[in-house]
Structure prediction request, 655 residues.
Amino acid sequence: MTNLLPLIRNECIKILKKKRFYVILLILAVLVPMFTYAQMRIAQRSHDKFNSDWRLEVQQQITDNQNSLSSDRIPEEWKSYRRIFVQQLQYYLDHDVNPNEPSGVTFTREFLDNSVTLFIPLLIMAVASDLVSGERTTGTIKMLLTRPVKRWRILFSKMTALIMFVSLIVLSTFLISYFISGLAFGYKGFNVPVFTGFQIGGDTVNMSSVHAIPQWKYILMQCGLIWFVSLVVALLAFMVSVLVRSTAASIVVMMATLIAGTILTNMASAWTTAKYLFMVNLGLTGYLAGTPAPIEGMTLPFSMAVLGVWGVISVIISFTVFTKRDILN
Amino acid sequence: MNDDDYGSSAKVVLSVNNVRKKIARKWIIDDVSFDVREGEIFGFLGPNGAGKTTTIRMLVDLIRPSAGTITVCGYNVNRQPEKALQFVGSIVENPEVYTYLTGWENLEHFARMQPGVDEARIAEVVDIVRLDQRIHDKVRTYSLGMRQRLGIAQALLGRPRLLILDEPTNGLDPKGIKELREFIRKLADEGLAVFVSSHLLSEIQLLCDRVAIISKGRVLAVGGVEELVSRNSPYVLWEVEPFDSGRELLAARTEIQITDPSEVTLDDSVIAGMGTNSVITIMEDAMIPEIVAMLVTNGIEVRSVHKINPTLEQLFLKLTEGETID
Prediction:
């Protein structure tokens, strides 16, 4: 009986030596400065326009959105988005809190919000899609499975290593984003209040449960949700990599599903059963910020349950297939 | 299979009993049985597509047989792989190792997968396969021969009782093949059971003590190499002058069978050295002096007599020919 720890260690060594994880860090280190620069330009422009009075800026945003509501050319779905947005902005204005207080922390919060549905899942796939199919592509799976170790132990060690790296990726996304954007916006801002708890019903926002929390707490919650989304995406990508022999095919399958998810999110509000698909439920952090869900009836617990079920099913499929299948080539 | 009398004193390490495998509604392996004993080199011989690789994959639990049992040192490979496989070292097809790791890291990786393999043992197998010069280089930079040796080092790590090598000489140069042969013999002399598959009959004949001949998923014969080969009479090549009357005299004898050169499987080197006036016969070699005398008394000049020992190839063709008829 071999212990599980050495097996997990093997898998971690392989992920590290393959340099996938370093590539992910490199991607972040290259892209985050780009976003930071773009954000800096926006901040500069509004600074010039509103003489650094954020109240004027928010008021302007409210007026702009209200004006567009009267236009006939804007579809009804978009209008309800904007009505909700206006109400939220008004709430910030009424409570004298700048929703876009420029700081490294605010940037990180927004960056995490925007990357949860596509960017972070893509980084996760770079590791997950290769774990089993990579061994099959190179043929090393034969060496791995002819050792005196039960197959489920091998798969379990791979999955454990994957979960560890998922956590590392989420953590490094936060750290890299914070440290790089901090260079431009400063490292303060952890205690700035952020409002959360907007309850959306149709066009109106129920403000009764809205409360302010310090930004660090908000980011902590955000990271937790992102970790959960990443975990489910990782488990799905892992299943695909068990099912498909080539790494390329495995990445394409997952990419296509994720991109289909973002497309569906933008157009599926009429097709309500689409809410059971995992890929439209990835925007968990939107529930914190109070952005309307893509399909009516979706709530944070609902989305987490859907993702959880998909995750569990993919684990079951991975283990059943991996432990039973003949390795023909 | 009548191999029970051969080396029956040695312990059976691998036992394959009535194994069958159906893939996509086709019987790829149809009733394969054989035993491999301690200290012997067992050849598994068959043309490409005969089912060699499928059988080997079943021996190491990569494929589960549809019927039949495979046991290694008393453990069923498919039911208790974690027990049975600790006695087995194998290279299935190519020696596939992690190219992004060094040779040493590869061995450490596989050492962690089995109990009782420490650093000293890793150093020992590195020494056995003589890879110590390059062991800390990335495998990416290794030649095929070096990868082959690393594969064997990996297979030997857990001090196996059975070593399975699938087409081990593929891609090796003649010197490498000779070295490998000596190496395998040395391992077998130390008591290891070695199972070698090949489609090269001459290779198996040189290397193995016993063979199983497989074709179209069936075992056609199992036995000692000498025993199997001696079932056939040798070829005798006659160079005679005048050719026609010499040939007639040879044909007149019932003990001698004359064959057409096109039906004979001889080494290319023999065919190249053969004169145009040669008669190829199949006969007992004990009769050669008598026939020479007979030819001479009949006024035929015997320029040369060349005996070619029977080969597995001959046997193999004979066996597989019967297969194609039915």
Summary: Residues 4-52+101-323 of chain A form one domain.
